[in-house]
Specification:
This is Alpha/beta hydrolase fold-3 domain-containing protein. This protein is of the alpha/beta class. The chain has one domain: Rossmann fold. The chain is built from 15 helices and 7 strands. A 7-stranded mixed beta sheet has the order 1-3-2-4-5-6-7, sandwiched between helices.
Length: 360
Amino acid sequence: MNGEYQENVDDLSLYDTIHMGFALSAIMVHGIGWIVSGTIQSKQPFFQYVYRKLSRYSVESMNIKQIRKLTGAKRPMPNAMIHLGSSSVFYSKVRRYGERIGSTRGYWVHEVEGRQPNDPVIVYFHGGGFYAPALAAHFDILLALAANLNVSIVFVDYSLVPHACYPQPIRDSAEIYAELEKMGCSNIILVGDSAGGNLCMALMNGIHYGFPESFRAPSLHVRPKAFLCVSPWLNLHATKTGSYVENNSKDLFSIEILNHWGSLYCSQPPDKETTWVSPATGSTDYWKPALPPGLIIYGPLEIMADEIKEFANRLEIPLFEEKGAPHDYILIDFQLRSTENKKLEQPAFKKMMQYLQSVL
């Protein structure tokens, strides 16, 4: 299955197809109401309000196979990368886009011409609840980083649930990292959003402490130079407290949906409480020696906001709060900005660029 989304083995049943048709029809009908109410309400920017309503209704009314169908999970790599990235205004500025790294599930977004072993390489882990593939927005952001920083970037096409659950995505990530080590890469920066941020933490965990034997993951030796996480998913067994309650109606999904996705990735309660699955459970003494310098970007309207802030503050990781943003808002906001200059001014992306420039 290497090189393709594991979900290629899935096809929608007749029931799923009919149900998805009804769900999409309902979204169109509800959309009119969201547009009207979004125009009247004043608590959130119009588009952010409509986007939140659309996202929430979609994840609550469709199953993961239906959502993957909508997001194009059946396209094999690198065809998916080319399909999703070729419309970006930054596409023409990169080199070796979509080329596979050895026999792993890693692909170049850009490799700097004449790259030397000690030149920086960004390794990127996309979000999507461990079940959804990368979106066009992910590649738009990565292409913009590559074009404007002229830095080599690797995209991690890790396996998705339900066909590949914990710890397979961690093993996929470790195999890509090991291949980069074999190539002599010694200056690596890890970047991830949402579930991808969770995988960033798992990889740094394994690099410092070694992976459990049951993971069947290669040993890694090169400590990352830095990391950057956007809205990292740090706890897969969350409880209804704090921002999980206060932001329940403000974010893109509910705690019930979040915990459902978490159970699809890791179904065993004891495993969910480990640092491999829920980094927030790790003590300060545990994580301090394992983490290089880093930055976390988040939105105050996320249901995970309190957990992200608590984790970052006790580990003294710098935080950037994107004002008024729900979970992982950079994705949709960046892609819908119409010009290159407007994209580069997106607040979270601008901070991402500044931070990466400081560590490259």
